[in-house]
Specification:
With 231 residues, this protein is α/β, with parallel strands linked by helices. The chain has 2 domains: 119 residues, Response regulator (Rossmann fold); 96 residues, Winged helix-like DNA-binding domain superfamily/Winged helix DNA-binding domain (Arc Repressor Mutant, subunit A, Orthogonal Bundle). Helices cover 41% and strands 24% of the residues. Helix 1 crosses helix 5, helix 2 runs parallel beside helix 3 and helix 6 packs across helix 8. It is elongated, with a radius of gyration of 19 Å. The protein starts with a strand and ends in a 7-residue tail after the last strand.
Length: 231
């Protein structure tokens, strides 16, 4: 069955252009023209990928991305005006997988769609559940529990924790973490890793023996510390 692509843009000519080139490549295309409609369509259609414009009526694209990431890991490519670096970075921070600047070459858009879908398939978990001494991460449901209690994580916090748990006890430098979590096309500051690690540490505070350890001058690793059990 053909992959379903949801194209969200208030400019109908943009939607029509994207539809033309995507359907030529065998994709099934759905459309939404504002933020509220995008959320409704995403819930009803359950697309394989969403192309999402930043500037939308009703609810802007960044807000739509934020809402989607609360319940879904659907790949998202954001459309941004050329030079809007802040929106681009914020979109990636919120969990978007890639971006394309307007005006865009429709062939490039199709190539990006194929690349993101290919990467998403490669990242499908072989182990649906990862565990480490009281810390449990369900990759399919995107749920985390710490000592049996549910913990809510942002999209990239979840992906970062998954990377740590897949490499338990192994030091990962910031560049490697950016590649694993944000993708090889991410051009943001490596300090975003430090911010997300700080957020993760707060949310994992109730873990009795599992912690994220700083390896100075290198990066971070997730460890199980037998001496860190709380009384």
């Amino acid at each position: 069955m053909a992959n379903a692509i949801l194209v969200v843009d208030d400019e109908k000519n943009i939607v029509q252009l994207a539809r033309l080139y995507l359907e030529r490549e065998g994709f099934r295309v759905e459309a939404a023209y504002d933020g509220a409609q995008a959320l409704e369509k995403a819930k009803a259609v359950r697309p394989d990928l969403i192309i999402l414009d930043i500037m939308l009526p009703e609810m802007d694209g960044l807000s739509v991305c934020r809402e989607l990431r609360k319940t879904s890991n659907v790949p998202i490519i954001i459309l941004t005006a050329r030079g809007d670096d802040v929106d681009r970075v914020v979109g990636l921070e919120l969990g978007a997988d890639d971006y394309v600047t307007k005006p865009f070459n429709p062939r490039e858009l199709v190539a990006r769609v194929k690349a993101v879908l290919r990467r998403a398939r490669q990242e499908e978990p072989s182990q649906p559940v990862l565990e480490a001494d009281g810390l449990k991460l369900d990759l399919t449901r995107r749920e985390v529990t710490v000592e049996g209690e549910p913990v809510t994580l942002r999209a990239k916090e979840f992906d970062l924790l998954a990377a740590f748990m897949r490499h338990l006890g192994i030091v990962l430098d910031r560049e490697r973490l950016l590649q694993l979590v944000w993708g090889s096309d991410y051009y943001g500051d490596t300090r975003t890793i430090d911010v997300h690690v700080a957020w993760l540490r707060e949310k994992l505070a109730k873990a009795k023996r599992v912690k994220i350890q700083t390896v100075w001058g290198v990066g971070y690793k997730l460890v199980v510390d037998p001496d860190a059990a709380k009384s």
